[in-house]
Design brief:
The protein is α/β, with parallel strands linked by helices. It has a single domain, classed as Cytosolic phospholipase A2 catalytic domain (3-Layer(aba) Sandwich). Helix content is 47%, strand content 15%. It has twelve helices and ten strands. Helix 2 links the parallel strand 1 and strand 2. The N terminus and C terminus are likely disordered.
């Protein structure tokens, strides 16, 4: 498939919480296989954790450096939850705030001479990659796609936070009289934006979510408030992932396992290197299953 790899110019990465680690596994292995090359990438579209990964890709770190940061960093010191934080969430409209995204993005950004004040325009000028970040403005309930073209003076940190601030878990971002929440509430897989901006479908590599198993997505007498919220948001995001992009068919698209987990499980995963590695390995395995049969068939045809 080497001849096709040179044609990949755009990446589209869906949101999905801890499933983002699986998306990372797909991105890493597909790049190592020569399926896409960062020097050929013109734009990256991302929602929520997909927006975080978009920034990681645009920074052009080695996979070894990214592995060290994602796997070995002591994230348990970042994702702390206690009784004080639970009560504070009532007034703050969320358990965590923008500092979470700063913990995700600032260390790798600082390593490439960016900082917390870096704007989307400055980021594009230095990386040469247009990053499109999808959020939702709650008052109008409209999707807002942020980029160096539409929001040049917005900081990278603010834009990504707007896309990733999952209700209840993260406080919404209030700015200029508007309220921004997780982009997955309307469009979790921003493929439509990429195509509507003129990208050729055969030049797009998309990473989306498979439909969730309905049998495990139910409320029972044993369910907690966080379980209820998690299932509610999972339903919303599943609908937004499949409802608006079904008319577009990609040649290069992988659907990740859409594992429905609670907010507590999400925090637990972020605090466990073993759990993060497990999700990354799932992505690697999925990539190998998707890529290898086609690659083997092509080699047989050539021979």
């Amino acid at each position: 498939m080497e001849h096709e790899s040179r044609n990949i110019k755009h990446l589209v990465i869906a949101g999905g919480g801890v499933t983002g680690f699986s998306a990372y596994g797909v991105l890493r292995e597909s790049n190592k296989a020569g399926f896409w090359h960062i020097e050929n990438i013109e734009s990256i579209y991302g929602t929520s954790i997909g927006a975080v990964l978009a920034i990681y890709m645009a920074l052009k770190y080695s996979w070894e450096d990214l592995d060290d940061f994602i796997l070995k960093r002591p994230w348990q010191h970042v994702f702390k939850i206690d009784i004080h934080g639970t009560f504070a969430a009532y007034e703050n409209r969320g358990v965590y705030d923008k500092r979470i995204i700063e913990e995700f993005l600032l260390p790798p950004m600082l390593g490439k001479d960016f900082d917390a004040t870096t704007t989307l325009l400055e980021f594009y000028e230095q990386t040469g990659i247009a990053v499109y970040i999808n959020s939702v403005e709650l008052h109008s309930y409209q999707s807002v796609v942020m980029s160096y073209k539409t929001h040049p003076e917005w900081t990278v940190i603010d834009a990504v936070y707007c896309s990733a601030c999952l209700p209840i878990l993260l406080s919404p971002l209030l700015k200029d009289g508007k309220c921004y929440i997780d982009g997955g509430a309307i469009v979790n897989y921003p493929l439509e934006f990429c195509i509507e901006n003129g990208a050729e479908p055969d030049e797009i590599f998309g990473i989306t979510l498979a439909k969730v198993d309905k049998s495990v997505n139910t409320i029972t007498e044993e369910s907690t408030l966080f379980d209820y919220i998690s299932i509610l948001m999972s339903k919303v995001y599943e609908h937004s992932c499949h409802d608006r992009s079904h008319d577009y068919k990609l040649k290069h698209e992988i659907a990740l396992e859409n594992t429905m987990i609670s907010i507590y499980d999400m925090i637990k995963c972020m605090s466990s290197m073993e759990q993060r590695l497990l999700f990354i390995t799932k992505g690697v395995d999925l990539w190998n299953r998707w890529y290898m049969p086609t690659n083997i068939q092509e080699n047989l045809t050539i021979s």
